[in-house]
Structure formats: C-alpha cells, structure tokens
Amino acid sequence: MVRGQEFHSIVYNIFTEVNGYMQSEQLQVNCPRCQEREGLSHPDGKFNLEINTAKRVFRCWKCEDPHFSGSLGRLIRTFGGYADYELYKSYAGTFHDYSDDEDEKEYEVVQLPPEMIYFSQMDAKNPNHFEAYNYLINDRKLTRDTILKYRLGFCLTGKYAKRIVVPSFDIDGEINYFVARNYDTRLKKKFPYLNPYADKDKIIFNEGLVNWDSTVYLIEGAFDMFSVPNSIPLLGKTLSSTLFYKLKELRPEVVIILDPDAYKKSIELFYTISSIYVDCEEKVKIVKLPTTEDIDELRKNHGVKEVIKALYSARDLNVDDYFALKLKKPYENYGKRRYSLNSENNRW
Q: Residues 205, 220: contact at Cβ < 8 Å?
C-alpha cells in the first residue's frame, strides 16, 4: 500500500495534473508559486514541486530565495479550498505526530505598489499614461466608468512596471490584495500576471463592492469581474474558507460562472455550496458558457447582450452535468520525471 495515499485525492483535486497519483508516495505537480512568480496564466508543465505524502512535506526544486517548502497541510491550506483543508486535517489527525500548528504561515500585509498611479490621477497628455489607458479602453473594451469604479491603476516603473493594477478592498476599504496584469505586448505571453504573495484564503476579493442582498456571481479572474455585476473573483477555481463561511452565514442567491475549460470544477463547486444551503438549495445556480470563450472574452468579442443572455441561462444541474462530473481525466505524464526526496542530489 502507498503510504499517505489518503492525501492523493486532495492533491489531485487542487492540481489536477499529478505524477505518481495512487502509485507512489512521492508525487510531482506543477508549482503554483512558480506560476505566480513568472506571471503565467496556466501551470508551467514542469512538475517542479514534489510532495512526499508519507512524510506530509513538499518542496519545489526550482523556487529559490526563499525556498518554497514545508508541510503538506500548508500547501493544501494555501492553494486548496476550505473542504480540501478540512479533509486533510481529518486524515492527518489520525497520525500521532500531527498538529495543525505545522500548517500555520504568516504573510506580509498587502500594500499597493508605491509607484502605482490611479487612472483618476493620470496625465492624459503623457504618452506613457495614455498607453495604459488605451489598453483598457481599446484592447479590453472597458468604459471609463468601470475604470473609475474599480479604482484601477498602472505602474510605469518598479517591479510592476507596464502593468494594470486591479486592487481588492475589504468591507472597511482597506487593501487586502491586488492583481497586476501587463499591457506590454512584448511580455504578454510570458508574464501576463504578477501578484503579491499573500494568503488568498483569508480574503474575499473586493468585498467592499459586494451586495449580499442581491445575486452574487462567482467567477475566476479579476478581469472577469468587469463583465459581470456583483461578482466575486475566486482567483482560481475553489472557494477560500473566508468566502465559504460568508456564504454559509448569509446564503445569498449565488451563480457559478467558471471558464469553459473548468466546467467540471463548476459542478464540484455547485455541490460544495449546495451542501451548506440547507433547505434553500434552489438558491445555487450554474452557468455553462455557450462558447470556448471565458465571460470577459464573451463581452469583448460579442458584446454585453451576450453576457446578459449567459447570465439568464443560470440553472440547476442536469443529467449531462452529472455524467460530466463522473468523467475522469486520463492519467498522463507519469514516469516522465521522477525525483527521490531521499536521494543524494535532492535531500530535504
């Protein structure tokens, strides 16, 4: 029997591509820290992060200064959802040497880049300022009202140079996160996003703008937020524990709209939320987008009317959704790359 096999399904749920799944106590996945640091919109496909499920530890062999390593619980808590971490603790708690103290991690307080310029303060005569503004107006097809409503900014210098900054404010108006999207076509493919290293599990993106008495739309990315009213970017495909508890407390009407390539995740999310909407499961709906475009691309390419049409298509699950959830992704990549945590070259 593979030691730590009970953790494999949790790892698979978070990373979806797992070398060694159900076959080895040493798993390899794509490193989310590498993805964030390099500003990639998708995993890099290099499987640099190795997990030893028997020892409940992980390490990325690429991340340096600082090293990215620690307990498996910390990895699951940071990049998984509430249900993932609770399930992990229930399994890990059966081991005499486990304490959830090992999963704790302190993050620095998030601050907006000091060099950021709000578009409300831009100099229209400055060509560098206008370049950033032109990207939002012509490339992203946003309105000036939207730019001002979400207090968007941009940077010309520093770590976030040539990037649009989408800030997130909590209910007290304090900054708690931001997304930085480049608008320089020379960097577009390699470094689209560059975000702060912060605990996303503790925030609800732009909660200060959410009306909990109205229908709340759950979407993937910050730029999707500009196309859907009263929406919350998940900054991924899972619920943070903070959002989970907020939904459990308030139980607003909620509609899930993830990208077309993540429709199976949408169905899983539907079940997760429905489980806490006791006696009011009808408040949870799902949208299957009509094309391969995400909701922001749908607005840009086809107009607001198509977005409205998609929102009106919100529904309960049907038989096709049930079978879609049962489909398993073919096991790939196993054997392409293997490490040993105990080898002389890769020693903990």
A: no
Q: Residue 248 burial (CB < 10 Å; 0-12/13-18/19+)? A: middle
Q: What are 19's strand-pairing partners?
A: 28
CA angle in degrees (0–180, nearest 5) for 317-322-328: 140
Rounded to whole angstroms, how far apart are CA atoms 264 and 327? 9
Within 10 A of 242 (CB to CB), how many other CB atoms are there? 18
Domains and CATH numbers, the chain: 5-103 (3.90.580), 107-198 (3.90.980.10), 202-330 (3.40.1360.10)
Give the C-alpha separation, 276 to 273, whole Å. Answer: 6
Q: Answer yes or no: are the C-beta atoms of 89 and 73 closer than 8 Å.
A: yes
Query: Tokens 């307990």 label which residue?
Result: 71
- Judging by DSSP bridges, how do beta strands 57-60 and 69-71 pair with one another? antiparallel
pTM recorded for the entire structure: 0.70
Q: State pLDDT tens for residues 137-178.
A: 999 999 999 999 999 999 999 999 999 999 999 988 889 999
Integer Cα distance of 348 and 346 in angstroms: 7
- Structure tokens belonging to residue 43: 């995993």
